[in-house]
Amino acid sequence: MYEMKPEYFTGIDFIDKEHARLFAIADEAYQLLKNEFIPDKYDHIMNLVNELKDYTQYHFKHEEEYMESIGYKRLLSQKVAHEDFIQKINEYTPDVIDENQKETLLELLDFLATWLVEHIYKQDKLIAE
């Protein structure tokens, strides 16, 4: 369901590859939601959230270094958006996840779908211009 479509490509290879991994993580979350054979999804959700935390920090660092190297004028707003993303992901604590796993997955998927479309399509594509 979640895939890196042509309209999301920036034309900057390493950024596009890293974005593709973010789409893949979102798709893993979607597949987990749909998997009825795993009744207790807590460990899987925790793994996805931890991977998102680690991978986005890695990706944002690369992206910000690149923007800085090219003198990108919107670097500050990008940094703020990246910090907002990390802050939101950090809200997914073990207690929150354990309380209602399905609701957590639905909320996470909604957040990721909005982020991937809005941020990549509307903000990150501007980096290449």
UniProtKB/TrEMBL annotation:
Query: Per its UniProt record, what InterPro entries does this chain match?
Result: Hemerythrin, Hemerythrin-like, Hemerythrin-like_sf, Hemerythrin_metal-bd
UniProt keyword terms in alphabetical order: Iron, Metal-binding
Q: Enumerate the GO terms in the molecular function aspect.
A: metal ion binding
Q: Does the keyword Metal-binding apply?
A: yes
Q: Which residues form the Hemerythrin-like domain?
A: 10-127
Q: Where is the signal peptide?
A: none
Question: Which family does the record assign?
Answer: Belongs to the hemerythrin family.
Statement: the UniProt record of this protein carries the keyword Ion transport: no
Name the Pfam families on file.
Hemerythrin
The protein, known as: Hemerythrin
Q: What species is this protein from?
A: Acetivibrio thermocellus AD2
Entry-linked SUPFAM superfamilies: Hemerythrin-like (SSF47188)
